[in-house]
Specification:
mainly alpha; 2 helices; about 70% helix; about 0% strand; elongated
Amino acid sequence: MNTLIIDKIRRLKGEPVKPISTEGIIILDDDQAENALNFELAKIDEFQRKVKEMSDQCD
């Protein structure tokens, strides 16, 4: 995290920063990112429901 802050400060000052490779990385637009986030949140909700069901059965 510190390197991200340092790189941001360098960019603001106009100083060079090390290049970041995006090879093999897909950059999502806002709609794609929101859909991906909602998908992951739905998986977490489903997992939490299953854990709650299992704990209710053990009681």
